[in-house]
Amino acid sequence: MSHYTLASRRRTVAVESNTTASLGVPPDYPYLKSLVKSIPGVLNLPTINKAEKYFNLPLGTHFKAPSREMGLQMKSLFAHALREHGIVAIELGFDDSASQFMLQLVEAMGCKADTHSSTQGALWDVTYKPEGVVSAKSGGAAHSKSHGVGEFAWHTDGAFEESPQRFFGLHVLHPDKMGGGIFRVLPAEDLVASLGPAAVETLLKTEFTLRVPDEFYKGKATIQGKLLSIDPETGHYLLRFRRDILMDPPSQDPVVNQVVEDLNNLLDDPAKSGSRFPDSIFKENVVLLMDNARFLHMRTEIKDKRRHLRRVRFHGKPQID
Questions:
Q1: Is residue 48 domain-resident?
Q2: DSSP class of residue 215?
Q3: Does residue 101 sit in the same domain as residue 246?
Q4: 50 in a structural domain
Q5: Which residues in the chain come in under a pLDDT of 50?
């Protein structure tokens, strides 16, 4: 390198250094930064935990419904996706603060919405509700996990029902905007693949006594049911699970108890169970429909007490025109 070139580079570095030192960070930088953020179209890059596993929606399961009428006209598309993949996400392009579209869609697909308990209707508010709901069993207040702020571990909805609702829908009204309330899913096929053949066989043939939570009481305190079965039409594995409704111990058979313990240990290992639903989909005014038996789901501890979802559970086979 020539003496002239080296000298030129030194002068350039000196000028850049002096310029940076003289300018520094402008005193009104925080104000300017907040001003830029407030300009429509200027968005922050999403914060993504690269170490976390995210759930990828299968092709043909993510839709946009520009209007209520168009959404209902798309019912066969939703029904096909729900039957084929067990999951559908619909971004609504219209206001529906009462979640009536979700109910209308369930009916349009030829299904029937179920009531949540003897005192609650078809729609259930999943939100912080410290006062609880009235229990038909005790006549007093009963407190559902869906009304608390703690973690709600892996489960299927209505696991305590004699005939659990095959499907459920969630209308996201206000997601947790403080980093909590993360929705996670675990396909039944993935869970079964992680269990040994002997464990799967044990679960397929064992009936358990399951407690009915007070807030969902409909006349019986316990029911009998299997945690794992197989759909005779499709061959899909079907789940019914909620850890806290199992008896203690779950069975009089030590082999069965060991299988349940192994299952719980597997579900407690975040590296081996489930994936996070993307925030880009689990957002305001999205309706999520799921096959309740083909997925376990859970949510992490809630940090934003304004988090609000509305749920419907429904029976029947979604009809394709």
A1: no
A2: G
A3: yes
A4: no
A5: 2-25, 35-47
